[in-house]
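Problem 12. The chain below contains 190 residues. Write out its predicted structure in token notation.
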Amino acid sequence: MVDAAPPSFASAVRAALAADGWLFADLPAGLTLEGLRASGAPFKGERYFTRFARETLEYTTVAAQVAYRPALLPGTLGLRFEDALARLERLADHLPPGVVATAAPAAAYIWLFEAHHARYGAYPFVQCYTWAVDCYQGRARLVVGVFGRHRPLLVAPHTEGYGAGVGLWPLLLPGAVADALWPPAPRPEG
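Solution.
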């Protein structure tokens, strides 16, 4: 039995997105923060895992080609999560048909930070956070960022609710996966 290829952009759509500055990666299915930590992702400390992971509703990834720009969505830095999502909806109005713009789980962002770094030798952006869809204690979204050079990846709940230092890193996906975004991850043991 041959595994089906993950959903990807049609060649004309991919060409249009590439001409507009979007980069591409093949996002694996089933990524979790704990799995990325176990595979060696350079997290800055253990605080998220020891203090917050058990009370976080984490979402995992679906296998699909993603498009991204190496920057936060303009105008989202400093916005609350809900307001940043409203800006994301405006972006969606300017995309080719069959393309979904979304905020993503923290695991997707961590994986993409590392994939971009491996390919280009630098992180897509540093010294600020992106909102993630994961939710701590039902009240605070996770934020993900790159700070420093040694073990730079940082994940934390943003309990203040406002967006100081936080923006939104939009990912584009083929519309074929829109109904599958993002499944809940298994709960941590213990």
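Discussion. Strands lie at 23-27, 56-57, 64-68, 99-102, 129-136, 140-146, 153-157, 166-167, 171-174. Students who got a different answer should revisit the alignment rule from Section 12.3.
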